[in-house]
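Lecture notes, continued. The same structure-token format from the folding unit now serves as the input rather than the output. Read the line below as a description of shape only.
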């Protein structure tokens, strides 16, 4: 029998390529996102996978409950990739508006997707995996989890939550047959930076990793049962290693240079630091 994987945030980007890795390794899939999944479903089915697509708004409690019901109906699952996430950027304490900070609603929606839905789905699915005595769980965090995030304060904090959550669960579940792996990608060539309105930052305008390669590294780490994988270029690995020894104020100042609105090279609002 083919194994079954569930991937959230699977319409595009890292999530789609994670689903593609599962399909290439003879998994069937249940994929979900809060947008049209038709193109992703067709691409994955062309690889020979049976694919169930469930559109769900992970900001909504009832839609997560409905998604879990669909997961249960699909049958025992072998792998769960909790990948869904959104971003927002801008000076937190300024009023919202064009070219300024995200609205309070945007920030709370970010917490709902990146934190609340992560806990909600994990709390529903993990007891099933523990009950069957086997399963692999991937939680997508970010290298942003390892540093304070000026101009991305809520996003970076949400990713730090995911990283800590994954490592805590891994220790709890060490004798259960269920392994938990956390994925820490750096900047990746997806629509994330446009959606987070970060195109005018050094981070948004800078070099990015291939999402297909990030997903491949994540899949291999997940199957190997590793605790975490810093995916993408070697620069990401050096960064995460170096940050273990740096004060928080130094890491925050470095991130500020990359994430300040208008800091992209050539941008008319670019500041000198």
């Amino acid at each position: 029998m083919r194994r079954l994987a569930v991937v959230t945030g699977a319409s595009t980007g890292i999530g789609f390529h994670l689903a593609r890795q599962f399909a290439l390794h003879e998994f069937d899939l249940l994929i979900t996102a809060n947008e049209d999944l038709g193109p992703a479903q067709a691409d994955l089915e062309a690889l020979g996978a049976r694919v169930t697509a469930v559109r769900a708004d992970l900001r909504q409690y009832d839609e997560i409950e409905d998604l879990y019901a669909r997961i249960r109906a699909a049958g025992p699952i072998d792998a769960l990739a909790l990948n869904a996430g959104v971003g927002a950027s801008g000076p937190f304490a300024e009023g919202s508006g064009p070219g300024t900070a995200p609205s309070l609603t945007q920030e709370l929606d970010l917490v709902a997707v990146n934190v609340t839905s992560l806990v909600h789905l994990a709390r529903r699915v993990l007891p099933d995996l523990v009950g069957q005595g086997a399963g692999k769980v991937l939680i997508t965090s970010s290298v942003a989890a390892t540093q304070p995030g000026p101009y991305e304060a809520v996003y970076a904090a949400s990713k730090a939550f995911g990283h800590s959550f994954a490592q805590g669960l891994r220790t709890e579940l060490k004798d259960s047959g269920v392994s938990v792996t956390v994925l820490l990608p750096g900047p990746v060539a997806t629509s994330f930076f446009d959606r987070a309105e970060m195109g005018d930052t050094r981070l948004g305008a800078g070099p990015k990793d291939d999402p297909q390669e990030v997903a491949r590294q994540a899949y291999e780490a997940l199957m190997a049962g590793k605790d975490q994988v810093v995916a993408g270029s070697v620069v990401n690995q050096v960064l995460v290693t170096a940050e273990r020894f740096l004060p928080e104020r130094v890491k925050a100042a470095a991130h500020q240079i990359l994430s300040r609105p208008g800091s992209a090279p050539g941008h008319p609002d670019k500041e000198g630091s």
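Point for the exam: The two ends are 57 Å apart (CA to CA).
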